[in-house]
Amino acid sequence: MKLVKAELFKIRSTSTWWVLGLITLALWAATLLTNWAGSSINAGVDPADQGLSPDQAEQIRVANEAVNVASNLYTSGQFFGVLMVMLLAAIVVTNEFFHQTATTTFLVTPRRTSVVLAKLIASTLLGIGFWLVTSLLNLIFVPLILNALDVGPQLGEPAIWRAIGLNGLAYVLWAVLGVGAGVLIRSQVGATIALSTGYVLGYFGASILFFLLTPRIGEWFSKLQVLVPPLASQLMVAGTELPGNPPRWVGAAVLIGYAAVAGGLGTWLMRRRDIA
Amino acid sequence: MTAGSEEIVVSHLTKHYKTLRAVDDLSFTVHSGRVTGFLGPNGAGKTTTLRMLLGLVAPTAGSATFGGVRYADLEQPIRHVGAVLEASSAHKGRTGLNHLRMICTAAGLPWEAADEALARVGLTPAAKRKFKGYSLGMKQRLGIAAALLGDPRVLILDEPANGLDPEGIRWMRDLLKTLAAEGRTVLVSSHLLGEMQQLADDVVIIAAGRLIRQGPVDEVLGSMAGTAHVRVRTPQVAELTAALSEHRATVTPLPDGALLVTGLDPAAVGHAAFANSVELHELTGERADLEQVFLQLTAGKAGIR
Ligand SMILES: Nc1ncnc2c1ncn2[C@@H]1O[C@H](COP(=O)(O)OP(=O)(O)O)[C@@H](O)[C@H]1O
Ligand SMILES: [Mg+2]
To answer: Where is each ABC transporter domain found (chain B) (predicted)?
Structure first.
C-alpha cells in the first residue's frame, strides 16, 4: 500500500500527468465536437425518413439509434483518452530508467514484483481518474447536445450505463498495457513514439488492411480484427451488436488477455533485469 | 543491530558479461565500524561489485551479505544500508525535497526524515528547487541525503568524489569522517587514491575483477616498505653520497638539487651525515604513498577492457 502511495506521489510530484491531462481534455473536446457533428448529420437524415414513413417499426429503429448515438457521445474522448493513459502508464516505468531512479526505487524496495504491482495499481487508479473526469464532463455536456438533437438525455437506458462502465474498463486495461509496454520498451522516447504511432496507425491501418484484404481472403478473416488491441477496445465499448461483428465480450476478453500478458511479462522481465 | 552484525562479506562473487569477466571470484570482508576504501582502476569491476552487493545486478556466481543476510532479504533495507551510486539518479522535474519524500513514502518513513537529511547535507535552501537546476555537487549531496534517510549503520558510496571540485571533495571527506566517527561502517570506492589515504582504515584493492590486496592501510603500505625513501639537501653532495653508499643505500640526485635516498630510514641518514660532519639543509622521510603502491600493485592488470 505504501508503495502505491509512493508511485502516486511520484506521478503527482512531476508535471507529466497534468500535461497529458490537458492534452486529453483538448482531444476530448475535439472528439465531442466531431461526434456531435457526426450525430447531427445522422439525426438530420432521420426526421426526414420519419416524415416519409411514420410507422411504429421505424420509430423503434430511431429510438435504437438514439441510444447508439447517445452511448457514442457519452464515451467521447475514449480513443485518445486511453492512449494518454497508456502513455502515462508507460512513462511511470520508463521514467525510472530515463532518470535512473530505478536504482533508488529498487534499493528502497528490493522486492521487484511489489514495485511492478504498485505501478500497475497506481496506473490503474490514474486510468480510473481520467475515465471519471471525461465521463463526468460527458454527463454534463452530452445531454445538452442530445437536447439540441431533439432526443432526450437517454440516461434511463441501461445500454448507456453499460457503455460508460465498459469505457472505464478500457481505461484500466490500457493502463495495464502501458505498464507492460514500458517495461518492454525501456526508452522513454522510444516507448512514447512506438505506443502512439502503434495505437493510431494500428487502429486506422488495421481497419484499412482488413477492409482491403477481407474480400480476397474470406469473411472469416475480418473476424480477426478483434485481435488488434485498439479495435478490440472499440468493439468492447461502442460495439453495436451488428450481425458481422463478434460480440462485445470477445473484445473485452482479447483486451484483458493482452493486459494480462503485458503485466505478467513486464513483471517477469523486471525481476530478472540488471539495474545498471 | 547487534555489534558486528553489519559486517559485509563478499564471497566468490562473479559476474560475466558475455565473454568479459567483470568481477572474477572476488572475496573480501568489510569490518564494521571502519572506513574501507574499495580501490581499483577504471573498469576494475567496482561498480559491478557494489551493485551486486545491493541486489541490483544478479551475480553469475557467489554471494554478498550484510551480517549474513542478502540485501534483498533485509527487512526495510534502507534502515540498515544507505547507498550512493550515481550523482544523477533523481527525476529532473522533481524537487529535491520531493525526491526524498518519495523515498520516505515507499520506505514507510515519516516525511520529517526528508527535511532532516536535507539539513544534514546543507541542501535546505534548495529543497524546493527542481533537480535539473542542481549543480553536480548539489546532486551528490542529495544522493547522500537519500542514503541517510533511514539512519543506516552501513554506508556504501561509489566514487563519491567524481566530478566534485576541491571544496566539494573536502566537504565529502569531512562528512564521511563524521559519519565514520559515529560508528558507521563505510565502504567507499574510488580510482583516485590520494583521498583514501587520509580517509580509509582498510583498503580492498582490485584490478580486472580480481582481488589484489586487502588489509589495513598501514599494513598494505608497510608491505611495500622497499619503496620508502628519504629526501635530503646538502651543500656537500659528494661527501654525503660516499657516506651513504657505505650503508648500501641508493642515492639518486633530483632535478631540484636534492638527493633521494632509498634503503635507509631518516634517522639512519641523519646519523650518517652527523658522523661524517656533513651539513644538512633538509631531511624528509617520505613514506610510500597509496598512489604508488596502488600503481605498482595493479600495474599491467588494468588495461582497458
Ligand atoms: N551492463 C554491462 N554490460 C557489459 N559490460 C559491462 C556492463 N557493466 C559493466 N561492464 C563492464 O564490466 C567492467 C567493470 O565495470 P565497472 O564495474 O563499471 O568498473 P569500475 O566501476 O571499477 O570502473 C568494465 O569493463 C565494463 O565495461
Ligand atoms: Mg565505476
So the answer is: 8-233
Does the beta carbon of A275 lie under 8 angstroms from any beta carbon of chain B? yes
Query: A221 with A214: CB under 8 angstroms?
Result: yes
Listed in sequence order, the residues at least 6 apart from A115 whose beta carbon sits closer than 8 Å to its beta carbon are A3, A105, A106, A109, A270
The 10s digit of each residue's pLDDT in B182-216 is 989 999 999 877 778 788 999 999 988 999 889 99
pLDDT value at residue B287: 66
- What was the pLDDT predicted at A51? 47
Q: How far apart are CA B302 and CA B295, in angstroms?
A: 9
Output the CA A101–ligand 1 centroid distance in Å: 19
Q: Where are the domains of chain A?
A: 2-42+52-272
Give the Cα separation of B192 and B205 in Å (integer).
12
pTM for the full predicted model:
0.83
Contact assessment for residue B41 and residue B207, using Cβ atoms and an 8 Å cutoff: yes
A170: closest CA among A241, A87, A85, A228? A85
Mutate to test the pocket of ligand 1, among B14, B16, B17 (most ligand atoms within 8 A of CB): B17
At A229, list the grid cell.
Answer: 488491441
Domains and CATH numbers, chain B: 8-223 (3.40.50.300), 229-286 (3.30.70)
Do the interacting molecules here have an ipTM over 0.85?
Answer: no
For ligand 1, atom 1, which residue shows the shortest CA distance?
A276
Mean pLDDT of A129-135: 94
Atom of ligand 1 nearest to the CA of B159: 21
Asked whether the beta carbons of residue B101 and residue A100 sit closer than 8 angstroms, the reply is no
Q: Relative to the alpha carbon of A274, which ligand is closest?
A: 1
Ligand nearest to the CA of B159: 2
